[in-house]
Amino acid sequence: MAVKQISVFVENKEGRIKKAINTLAEENINIRALSIADTTKYGILRLIVSDNEKAIAALEKDGFIVKENEVILLAVPDKPNGLNSTLAIFDEKGINLEYLYAFVSSKTDAAIVVMRLENMEKAIEALQDSNVKILKTEDIKDL
């Protein structure tokens, strides 16, 4: 039930993020979720997009280093303590959260949370046992 995310490594200098986003736009690739983390020398642009293969090919052709990895997308109650109650599941099971980012959509009452965890299989099992709604790749286009 994991979803593929792409990570784009960008130099931390003017115009590089725009260049990556423009590359996707030119290929008519829709960005469904985005996060960026930066250091003094580079940034990591994390994206959930409409077409990973096409996005990776276009970005690599434009000179970007791209990696694809798995994340979990969750529908979390969009209310106080919604995220905290979900994170408590990982604490109880001793599962380390590497990173997360979130967004809301007008098409759902839930907040959508993208998570990368140290042990993805154990995390998915814990979430299923707790009846947390895990989204699939095909759910992304409906958000």
Automatic annotation (TrEMBL):
Pfam families attached to this UniProt entry: ACT_8
Gene3D superfamilies attached to this UniProt entry: VC0802-like
SUPFAM superfamilies, per the entry: ACT-like (SSF55021)
Matching InterPro entries: ACT-like_dom_sf, ACT_dom, ACT_dom_pair
ACT domain segment(s): 71-143
PANTHER family recorded: ACETOLACTATE SYNTHASE, SMALL SUBUNIT
Name the record gives this protein: ACT domain-containing protein
